[in-house]
Amino acid sequence: MFIINFKNYEEIAGSRSLTLAEIASRFSKKHNVRIVVCPPQHLVSEVARLPITVFSQHVDSAKIGSTTGYVIPELLKKSNVAGSLINHSEHRIPPEEISVIVSRLRSLDMTSVVCVRDPEEAARYARFAPDYIAVEPPELIGSGKAVSKERPEAITDSVRAVKEARNSTRLLCGAGIVTGEDVSKSLELGADGILVASGIVKSPSWEQTIEQFALAFKDREI
Predict the structure, then answer these.
(1) What pLDDT, on the 0 to 100 scale, is given for residue 220?
(2) Which end of the chain is least crowded, N or C, by CB within 10 Å?
(3) pLDDT digit string (tens) for 18-47?
(4) d(CA 109, CA 190)
(5) Which sign, positive or negative, has the C-alpha torsion 174, 199, 197, 44?
(6) Alpha carbons 138 and 142: distance in angstroms, whole number
(7) pLDDT tens across 73-94, in order?
(8) Quick one: the chain helix, strand, coil %, rounded to 5?
C-alpha cells in the first residue's frame, strides 16, 4: 500500500487537494497499485467522492452524538472514508486511546494505520492488531533523507517486531522518501508499503513522482 498524507501543506490548499487526489487515482489505475490519500480533515468528504481510497489523517475516540470538534469514525465511514492514520508523530495520543480506536475501526470494517517512532513502539502497538504499523523516525520526517538509507535497521527491526506479534498486522515505512529508489529499498527491507507526505506534496511534479513511486511497487512484483 502507498499512502499519501497531504498534511496541511499550503500546496494542497483548496481545490489542489482534489487535483492531487485525481492524479493519484489515475496512476493507481494505470499501474494497478493501491494508492490511498489522506487529505486535510475538512476536505475528506469532498475527496472521498473521487474513485480513490481515502483515509483520515486522525480520528478521535469520542462518542457519536453530542460531541463537538472531534473526528468520529462512524461519521467518517458514512462519508466513504475507509480508514485512518492514528498516532502520527505530529498528533500523538496515549496508548490506551490507540487501543480503543483500533478496536473501534475494526468493528466498523475500517483500516487502522498506527504510526510509531521506532521498533520498540512497533512491538508495543502491534499487539493491538492494527491493520498496519507505520514506522517513521521523527528526525527524518520531511528531511529528504530516506529511512531506508539513513536508518535501515528501523525497518528491519520493525518488520521483526510486527511478525513477533503473530497477527495480521503489516508494516509500512515512511520519513524522507523522495525517490523511486527509496521506495524500492524500503520494500526490499521487508516493508509492505510506504507512508509519504512532503516527498509527494512538495515535489516539482506530482505526476512524475507518483508514477515513479508506483513503478517501484510494480518492479518489486516482477
Answers:
(1) 66
(2) C
(3) 999 999 999 999 999 999 999 999 999 999
(4) 26
(5) negative
(6) 9
(7) 999 999 999 999 999 999 999 9
(8) 45, 15, 40
End-to-end Cα distance, the chain: 16
Average pLDDT of the chain is 94
Could you confirm whether 136 is annotated as catalytic?
yes
Residue 143's pLDDT is 73
Report residue 16: phi and psi, to 5°.
-65, -25
Label residue 173 left, alpha or beta by phi (over 0 means left) and psi (-120 to 50 means alpha). beta
Instruction: Look at the block and give the residue holding cell 473521487.
Output: 50
Judge whether 42 counts as a catalytic residue.
Answer: no
List, in order, residues 6 or more apart from 23 with CB less than 8 Å away. 206, 207, 210
Closest CA to 60 of 37, 47, 38, 41: 41
Question: Of these residues, 74, 90, 96, 136, which one is catalytic?
Answer: 136
Find, among 46, 34, 41, the residue nearest to 7 by Cα.
41
Contact call for residues 152 and 192 (beta carbons, < 8 A): no
Could you give phi then psi for residue 53, rounded to 5 degrees? -75, 130
DSSP alpha helices (H): ranges in 129-205? 147-150, 152-164, 180-188, 198-201
- Among residues 11, 58, 74, 88, which one is catalytic? 88
Domains of the chain: 2-221 (3.20.20.70)
Q: Are strands 132-135 and 111-116 parallel, antiparallel or unpaired?
A: parallel
Q: How far apart are CA 8 and CA 81, in angstroms?
A: 18
